[in-house]
Structures are given as C-alpha cells and as structure tokens.
Design a protein that fits this description.
Tumour Suppressor Smad4, 253 residues, 5 helices, 2 domains, six-stranded antiparallel sheet, Rossmann fold, elongated
Length: 253
C-alpha cells in the first residue's frame, strides 16, 4: 500500500521551500485523505497543525524548519517513508479551558501545552485557586499562573520554574509566575483528572487575560481548566528521540 503523505508548512520561506521539495519527491495528499501529516516549521506551527487536524485522527510527524523544535524531528529529505514507518507514536490529551469574561461572555478553547493567566495591567494579579470545588489558595498575588500538561511542561511552565513532567505521568503542573504572595509558593502537582478554577480578585483594578496555546481572552472573571481525554493527539518521533526521551534529556542540560 502506498503511504499517502500530506505536507503542511509554516509561512517561513525555508519551510515553504522544504514543502515544495518534499511534495515533488514523495507526492502530496490532502490532509483528510492522508495516512500521515508531515508538519514543517517550529513548535508553534506544530501546535497549530495538531489543533487544525484533531478531528482527522491522523498522526503528525514534525520536521524542524523553525526556530524552536522540541516537538519536531530533525529535517532530512532522504528516506522519509522509512522514517515514518519506523517512527514511535506518542498520545497526548489537551486541556479544556472555559473562561468567563467580565462582560458575561463564555469562551472555550483547547490547549496542548498550557493554559496561562497573565496580568493585563500595571498591577499584580490577585487569583483565588480551587481544585475540584475545594478552595486551595485564597489569594495568590502574582504576575500570573499556569496549568501545564506533561507535553507542555518544558515550554512556558519550565521558564516559570515549574517541574518537567514525564510524558506518561497522569499529573498536571500548576505553576505560579513571579509570585509575590505567598512569596515562596512555587505551585503544585495535581492529578490529571483534577478540575482547576481560577477566580480573578479585584478584576476591575487588576485585569487578567487567559491564554490557551495563543488563543487569548481578555478581561476575564474566572477560568476553569481540566484535561480532555476525548481528544487524542497522535505525534510521531524518530526512534530513540521521542518525547519521553526529550523530557528526560532536558533535565540534564
């Protein structure tokens, strides 16, 4: 059986050029008819591709033609079909975000990496945090906070000094961003099944925005976040260079 490949590329010239070369060499199928999707770009484009093709249940194999490539394999035009046949598959579930803004409008979005709350004004944000309906932190004064999946734990979460999570871990990382009070509160590890709610305190004086994989909601009142097991993203990696290995290696660099 002939392997049908769909090549998708970011707008970067180097990615577009790679798409032309690969399509000429291996053929190019529409994503809805493909056996595998090859995404050419960086991690940002990989996330957009996973979101855009989630309903197709087709595995996505990324090749780095961008500036950051934690989710990407090395770029090489040769023996692509052999690499695809030997690739190892990782399954990741996104986070589901429900946010209410101060105008009473409801917003929903999915996030593969993390959902973050960020102050949107000159003053620090004040957040109340509840987990599974139980109040856990009455007031967190901070620049923001985020809830990360294992797949996203090396991204913004790690930059905010959050923990790196093994890809198979059934936990989420709740991490503070520049916490002022409690000053030494660094966050928490929560079960994957947990439902986390952030309520914005003094929202008019201290406006806060919510972001789910670059989908931003301004002037929020509250946000609820949970893992979404019904959505399964299939990502392919070269043998020995899968997401599990990358997460471990990142902790020793």
């Amino acid at each position: 059986m002939t392997l049908k490949i769909a090549f998708l590329a970011s707008e970067a010239p180097v990615a577009q050029a790679a798409r032309v070369d690969l399509a000429a060499r291996y053929g190019d199928s529409p994503p809805e008819e493909a056996d595998v999707i090859v995404a050419l770009g960086g991690d940002g484009f990989m996330l957009r591709t996973l979101h855009a093709t989630a309903d197709l249940s087709v595995p996505v194999y990324g090749m780095n033609r961008g500036t950051i490539g934690f989710l990407m394999n090395e770029y090489d035009e040769t023996d692509l079909k052999v690499r695809l046949a030997e690739a190892e598959e990782e399954i990741i579930n996104p986070l589901s975000m429900t946010a209410m803004d101060r105008q009473g409008e409801m917003h929903k979005a999915l996030a593969i990496n993390e959902v973050s709350l960020l102050r949107a004004g000159p003053q620090a944000a004040k957040l109340k945090i509840s987990v599974d309906g139980r109040l856990r932190l009455a007031e967190l004064v901070c620049d923001g906070a985020l809830l990360s999946t294992p797949a996203g734990s090396t991204a913004y979460n790690y930059s905010a000094h959050g923990p790196i999570l093994p890809i198979g871990a059934d936990v989420l990382a709740l991490t503070a961003i520049a916490a002022f009070r409690p000053r030494r509160w660094r966050g928490a590890l929560l079960p994957k099944t947990a439902k986390v709610r952030f309520d914005v305190l003094e929202a008019e004086k201290r406006p806060v925005m919510a972001d789910a994989d670059s989908i931003s909601i301004m002037d929020i009142d509250w946000v609820e976040i949970r893992s979404e097991p019904r959505v399964r993203h299939r990502i392919l990696f070269d043998p020995g260079h899968g997401l599990e290995e990358r997460l471990i290696s990142e902790q020793f660099t």
